[in-house]
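Recap slide: Indoleamine 2,3-dioxygenase 2, sequence and predicted structure.
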Amino acid sequence: MQKELPDHFRPWMEIANELPHLIESHQLQARVNKVLPRNLAIPLVEVSRSLGLPPILVHSDLVLTNWTPRNPERPLEIGNLDIIVSFPGGESLRGFILVTVLVEKAAVPGIKALVQAVNAILQRSQNSLLQALQRLKLSIQDITRTLGQMHDYVDPDIFYAVIRIFLSGWKDNPAMPVGLIYEGVSTEPLEYSGGSAAQSTVLHAFDEFLGVCHSKESADFLHRMREYMPPSHKAFIEEIHSGPSLRDHILSFGNGQLLTAYNQCVEALADLRSYHITVVTKYLIIAATKAKGRRPNHLPGPSQALEERGTGGTEVLSFLKSVRDKTLEAILPQSD
């Protein structure tokens, strides 16, 4: 696996490799300004454009492409994984990234099940569809279990005070209310959302397949997050959206087994979202309350400005509760 960029990009790699030290020793600002200088801004924008991504740290940068196995012959478990590029947060940062990697890994059978299910609908194969729905349910349950490893590897205070700052972006961020100037690219500040789990393809694809409909406010945010995904990932979601309707198929066939399996998938997805709410409550809401109780303290300003906002810029708890409740609304009534 390639871990270094070509020599032309050495200034970037030097800063990336020294990032924790530069920040902790207060030397970063001497190397990087709040106006992103043209020698960084222009190549960043050009590389991002070629990748089809916005010029900011996104989920695919931080998680999907930022891990490597210590021993390729051994299973992909957290003890056998390392992150490639780091920033302050120490072992908690490593845990946060790698647990998220393992969440994505747990979703793989579910994503494969979507493909199997769409083909089963097109071929009118009820047995294959039932099998795919059962596999999807198990995958969603495995995602929930894997997410629980956050408690073992990530310290809430470090996540709140340190890690979150580097995922906050410069859109809907009170600490950077007008955005960031990309010198040589735009004379006006540009606004981009920070890295967020909402930039993962997984739940978007599950929602589209299961026919979960969110409120306008939540749906607008989620659709905006699709612009922060690799183009092929976004295209996959759109392919699921434009494919055959699972709900219509189940209702038209009146197959009780299929309806039960569908509802079990929806319930598993709602349970995952409920569990995510408990994790966010611990790592954001309770951590924020504890941080307020410690003031005055050493926390950087942005942590206090952001308070209880998600890294993507949302009022996080109201958003998460809304998407969970709308998931539950997708449950189909059992016919008598």
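Residues 256-294 form the longest helix (39 residues).
The CA atoms of residues 144 and 272 lie 5 Å apart.
(End of recap.)
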